[in-house]
SpoIIE family protein phosphatase (Streptomyces goshikiensis), 808 residues
Amino acid sequence: MTSDTYRPGDAPAPGIAAEYLPEAATPIPHQAPTPMGRLVATVERLRREVLQAHAAADGRALVELAKGILIGQLNCTPAAAARQLDVLCRDSGLSPLELAADIVNQAARDHVTEVAAEFVERTGAAEPAERPTAVAVRLRTAESGVLAAADDTQAVAESLLTNALEPLGAVAVAVWTAVPDGSLALAGHAGFPPREAARWRHVPPGVSTVARLALRERRLVTLDRLSGEGLPSIGHLLWPEGGRMAAPTGTGGRIHGVLEICWPQPLAPQPPQIERQIEALAELCARTMDTSPPHDPAVAEAVLPDVSELIDLAEGLQDPAVVLTPVLDPEGRLTDFRIRHASSRFVDPVGRPRGDVNGALLLEAYPMAAGESGLFDIIERVHATGEPFRAERMSLTALVDQIPLTSVADISVSRHGAAVLLLWRIEDETARLADILQHAQRLGRIGGFEENLATGEITWNAQLYALHGLPPTAPPVRLRELPGYAHPDDSAALGRFLRAVLRHRRPASVNLRLQRADGITRHIRVVAEPVLDAHERLHAVRGAYQDISAQHWTEVALAATRDQLAHTEAESAERNRLALQLQHAIMPPTPAAIEAPGMRIGVRYRPAETESLVGGDWYDTVVLPSGLILLSVGDVAGHGIEAATGMVVLRNALRGLAVTGAGPGQLLSWLNTVTHHLAKHVTATAVCGIFDPSTRVMRWARAGHLPPVLVRQGEAGAFPLIEGLLLGALPDVRYVEREVRLEPDDTLLMFTDGLVERRDSSVQDSLGHLVQAAAAGAGDLDARLDRLLAESRSDTDDDTCVIGIQVG
């Protein structure tokens, strides 16, 4: 059967594979010879014949197009062209449909041709999954179907799905139209149930969908899995795990809509040739959606769209306006915009007259529009999508003698047919300053006024009405009437203020309590100055009211706080003074050396440098009734009167307990009981020693305190550390005691941590430094103690007690 004798109902045209005819090759199961079975078989046969007829019609249109090309090239009759096509088919071994696609590709050399040629080049050296010629056949067949139904977008969608997309595994296709208000309308669909298509017939502006993403980015968008993107779209409940591809459809720089394709399964990464095929199909859709006459790039500048109505609209606007039309290159791509008209209110930033701007290209007249401001991109997007754009306080830059000058303006861009209307409003400096002033008055709660004394006219701003608690329709309060709205106690100050302004004609200010009609009292500062005429006569008074209520109550609160702080400081100073007196009364800083049997005892006490840090350090040396000598130092934690009184309690308790003749371990155990039960919330450290002058043996114990240091024959060392918990931590503690036999000329040092403690060193390091200083010392006991205090490395400003015992 030749290619020019196709009839509806015949078998598919040669070259159209059965896989391109969905369900056409599916065998019909045997039906029972019942009326319902016969009806089902008839409906199935008719449906199959309709699909075959559609495929045959699309293929026949492509063959007829090839025959027309041969008629033009060979200058022959239609019959001769048909015979020539048969001869070429026999010689080449191709089907009439494949040969027709090749002939159309050679003659057209359009985007569809580029896609097919690229596919052939990329797959020529490999074993492709489908024949390269099948790509061209499929695309040309789809093109024939689209052109045959150019006025029916629904038929276009069905043709695309049947002829081009089902072989790629797609199950549905949607063709969206971009409406100028920013919404999307479903112009055609295939593969979706009717109810699903009805639900998605209109997508309002601002709703994010797959098609909206492609429209906004103006490029092909591929989603491997729709559920992973969180974007709703038509059919997302039918194939939630399927892939999507969406390509904007446009011509001449304008985007008319979006072609969206659905796959039932996740979409693997597609090769470039498949993406080019999708873009070619989107271009086919754009041809059917573009209602403007075919564009001829050769006469792009000669045939311009009629924008007379848009020019009339621009002239009727109060703001400067420019009418722009697109400029396309020979391949139909947007390159620039031509300024078709600049309105009469147009002011060129460079100072050129309107005549020099009218008719110029946008990027030639304003090259900075393609720079950081992005104005050209904005105009291009509006022209492509039809969605208007508005922005406030946008920076616009123009070149003046190669110097960029920037101004701030409100911008509005909208598309009208094939043209674009650009409006801007340069920010007026006076209006901007007035807006800043009004903003500052509102933030500062300041209301301004002017009172014309000649005419009696009074002008208030809105903030002043708010301060008075009056509606904007109420009559303003005259300056002379102000005492009637103020607290009676402010009458005298108001009188002086009015006399200074109205009689003496000099600026003045006054603070008053404004009593409003709603019962609220506000603290107000009124500042006014006279306005004199040419004869130095008082003409008007201008001034301002400022609400200082917050400042007033803040000052009141600060004054009360200052009084409280002063009282607290006085109490604290008195407490420290009493603590210092108590401390000095019990332990004078430098008492006289004590002469005891077999030894000489020297004491040094250095109080804290800051009186507020009065501490609880103590020392005690006493000859007991038994002839033994009690030696002790201690430190109550904390500072202030509590530490000082705690120190007195523990020092006196230890002295009284020592009369019992108990050893130092037992004494510290009893002192811990006193600390825990009788001195609430007090903890302390201590070292206690009992020295027997007859044997020169000293028994000692410690409660969390640093051990004594022994200096013998020029060498110094600390006593071995023994166990001993600090006082007051637990109710019942036993303390270990040790014995040390002292030799003649030995020097024993007992001290508190104020002598060695440093913030940047460990206690052991500080104790090692003290041992070195004690070993290096020489001279009598008093000189040794004074040198230790002078060379002390302590930096904690704490009290310091040192007891030096020199054995005779």
The chain has five domains: 1-148, 167-291, 303-427, 431-547, 586-807. The longest strand covers residues 403-416. The two ends are 142 Å apart (CA to CA). The first helix runs from residue 35 to 74.
